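Board work, copied verbatim: N-acetyltransferase domain-containing protein
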Amino acid sequence: MSSASADSTPSVADGYTLHHGYPPVPAYMHLRSASGLSPVTAEQAEHVAKGSWFGCHIVHNDTSTPVAMGRIIGDGGWYFHVADMATLPDHQRKGFGNVILHTLLAKIREKAPPGAYVNLIADKPGWKLYEKHGFQDVAGYQKNPERGMWQVLK
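↓ predict structure ↓
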């Protein structure tokens, strides 16, 4: 992961505020579904805060509505997974993904020992953002024989 994005903290657009922590459960659920991520149940969403290492979200000041979010799932030592990167459609193209991801990675750099492993699952619209922050596709990286895999339990 490149440290190029660690040099300067991006600012949040006027009228919005960055908060450390997680949006309330209903807002979390709405952010996921409205931004195109798979919907979750209230029971699933209730576990977000206690199952996360760190998170942050951006609130629209006039409406007090959470409009963007992201979080880190990890052990605090060497393994960290970026999850729930989402921005409501009406608030996209304001750099919120950049602010959220920078904040998440800055917290890892601040707290984790050198050599931390950070991964994520990226959909195509997020590729440029993640590459800007130093992420690389594991498939084919330096003849890497590994590949990412996943499973949704039924």
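The two ends are 34 Å apart (CA to CA).
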